[in-house]
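Sharing a chain and its predicted structure for anyone who wants a worked example. Both blocks are below, sequence first, tokens second.
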Amino acid sequence: MRKRMLSLLLCLSAWTYVHAQTNLSQQLDPVLSAAIPPPDPGVAVLVAKKGKVIYEAAFGSANLEMQVPLKPDMVFQIGSVTKQFTAVGILQLVEQGKISLQDSVQQYVRDFPAKGATITIENLLTHTSGLTEYTSIESHEPFIERRDFTPEIIINYFKQAPLEFSPGSRYGYSNSNYVLLAYIIEKVTGISYHRYITEKVIKAAGLGNTRFADEKAIVPLRVTGYTRDNGFYEHCAYQTLSMGYGCGDLLSTAQDLNKWNEALLAGRLIRTTTLEKAYTPYRLTNSTFSSYGYGWFIDQEAGKKCIHHEGQTSGFITLEKYFPSQKMYIVILTNVKSGEDKTDFSDRRFKLFAQITELALGEEVPSAINVSSQQLDSYTGTYQAGKQTIDIRNKKGILFCNASMEGSFKLLPVGPEKFIIPGVNPVSGIEFIKDKEGNVVELISLQQATFDWWKVTGDDAVVNESLQAYAGKYQLPTMRNTFTTITVHDNKLMASSTTPLPDAELLPVAPDKFKYNTPGIDFQLEFVRQPNGKVQMVRITQGPVHCKKIR
């Protein structure tokens, strides 16, 4: 989180290397083949842009004992990505008028305790119910994960547990929510959850290789899952698939998940307006936003809006990400889950997954160059922009940046007067500027990134073109204590922020579009409205920030 704060608040410089998508295999293949040797559990990757698959490959092994190479069309368990399918099933019933998002759980599960609060279907969809995670409840039964469960047995495990918080007041990820949603589908439709999702969701989306997991079924091209501990691969301890009811028991392929995303965007399963609501962070009772909608996380990655979910189950990890501004969908499937690994194996794998996204989005980290200590000394000093003061120091041949509001971090030289912050995504850094005499007089930070700030307070009754329609408090959902406040003074729109940005007037440049009226800071703001005309959020695009050397 600290690294993401640095990239947002400092807006430090990024040099983006944009690659033609036709060369994506030239970038990804060497990285993946080096990281995933053939004898190891593998990774299947698919990247699609504007509905067209631009990269599809697999590396490693689908079965270690049989030494079967992994192929892109093989079948994986996808864990919690199942929640999207359950959410769509519920939203179909909402569109049909059979249920309402504000209906209580008790309207469909009669014997579920009220717990002194109303838990709505919307609370279940958004993980804001306060229900305890059923897999975390202690059981005195040995090897409980090996027995078969019915939905009723699972619900009985958590229904008497006290709420962890008042419904709607907080976000708390819990599989219990989606177990109840699946059970509600059964109660409303009169058929099993698995049958409903198979017929109305999976088949409707045209997914030929997606199905619910079954220990007894023969599934062509099904991949074996593994774990790893102390450097050795092992078979996973048996865990009944029935535990994933509604929340994690689907099998699928990278190709089918891409078809799934396309079916959703095309409105073939639910209306596009309903999908947009599912892709919207949930507003809590204190008017702030979580970073979860109806079956999807909504936040930022590499400075771009990302709608995504992760699935982790015994032996498997799934990551799927949709970047709407790039119309890009990324699927990563792997058949090893090693949360108990005592080495850095898991950390390296997740760094690899992040690198796949960076390359797919077209970003490459520049290589470091050698810079003399004397040259580094020329950059040292104190710089200022807005509320932020930045000290640059040379410590034993390494340049360090100490920001007054974020702390200290090192800088990596990548070009004449150019440095990056290692490990920050998107690539971020600074460029030093010299005067005619060769003296460093300022540094410029640049990160071309766009962030959606959701309106949490304000007069929602105002829908006209007056400045008051924009007034209110806006929150960045991924950083719950980060706000921008828009006010109107003397018929001028003013902005203040909990970030290092200075308070400033916003100058209009087009309908609903403004720019920061502060020398040296190039930020663009676009207010986004709901269909009814109410301002829903402000989209802030970061540009250059000039930090003058003050000593």
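Comments welcome. The chain has eleven helices and 28 strands.
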